[in-house]
C-alpha cells in the first residue's frame, strides 16, 4: 500500500491518547529539524565532495531548504481547509521523499540544492499541519501547553541529530543521512495514517474558492495580534537560523576548533531549549502566555547585549564556556517566547486554522530565512556577527511586541485558563 493510500483511505481504529497525540505532532515537526541539524557535521564533507571554495557557500543547503519550506506553506494550509488535514500531510510527505531521493543521488552541488528545495517544499506540510491540528483540538493557554509539550519533544531532536549525523559519517557518508530522512518521512506517514483521525471541524471545511482563500488571508492581515506576533517570531527565528547555519563554523572548525566534540556542545545547548519548554508547560496556566513570553523577549535582549559586549571584549573569540553559557541563556529565553507567540498569533483565527497557519508559517519562515541568511553570510571567523544579529533581532522583536500590545507588556488577556476544545471526544 502506498503512503498516499495509507493517509487517504484508512481510518484509525482508535484515536491516540493525549501523550501519543503530542508525540505524533512532535515527530511531524521534528522531520524539518532533523533535515537541518543532522546535516551540520557533514558540511565539510559536502564542501570537499563538490569542490566548493567557501564554507559560507555550504550554508545555502539550509537557505534553499528554508525557501522551499516558506513558499509551500501558502499552499498546504488552504489545501488542508479544503481536502482535510490527513491527505494534505500525505502529499507533503511524498514531496519530501522525492526531494530526499534527488539530494541523495545528486551528481553536483546545484542538483543537491534542487533536492533540498523540494525537501523543504514537502516538509512545509508538517509545519503547517502540526499547528493546524493542535489548533483544531485546543485553544488559549491549553493550546500553548500542548505546543510546549510538543516543542519539548521536538527539541530533543537537535540534541541528538548532529551526533546521529556524525555516526553516519563515521560508518558511511553524507548520503546515509539523506536515507535516514527518507526513512523517517515514511515512518511518520504510516504512523499518522494509522493512528490520527481527521481533526478538521466539519463546519470549517471550505469548498475551493479563490475569493474565500483570499478573504482568509486578508483576515490574517487585519488581526493586530497575528501580524505583530508573527513578525516577532520571524525576527527571532532569523537569529536562530543564523546560529544553526554558522554553528559548525563556530564550534567545529574556525572559531573554537572542537572537531568531533561539536555535536556534544550543540546538543547541550539544544537541551537547554527543551528545559525551557518544560518550564513553559509548568507556568503557562498559572502566569499566562503574555507574562512568560514578554519576560522571555526582554531577557533575550539583555542576554544578547551581554553577548555583544563579550564578543567585543575578547576580539570576537570569547572563552568557549562563557560563550556557550551566554548562547544557552539566549536559547532558553527564545524557547519561552516561541510557543506562546505562535499561540497568540493563531488564537483569533480558529475557524480558518489551516489558512492562518499557512500565512503565519510562510511569513515567519521567509522573514527568518532572509534575516538568518544575511547574518549567517556575514560570518567572518568570529562570533561578533552572530551576537550582533541576536541583539538586533531581539530589539526589533521587542519593539514589535510593544506595538502589538499597545504599550502594555505583561498584561494577561485571559486570566482564567481557556477551556479545552477536543473535537475527537
From TrEMBL:
Domain Major facilitator superfamily (MFS) profile: 21-406
Stated name of the protein: Bcr/CflA family efflux transporter
Membrane topology, as annotated: Multi-pass membrane protein
Subcellular location: Cell inner membrane; Cell membrane
Organism the protein comes from: Kaistia defluvii
Coiled-coil stretches noted in the UniProt entry, renumbered to this chain: none
Keyword tRNA processing belongs to the record: no
Main location: membrane
Family according to the record: Belongs to the major facilitator superfamily. Bcr/CmlA family.
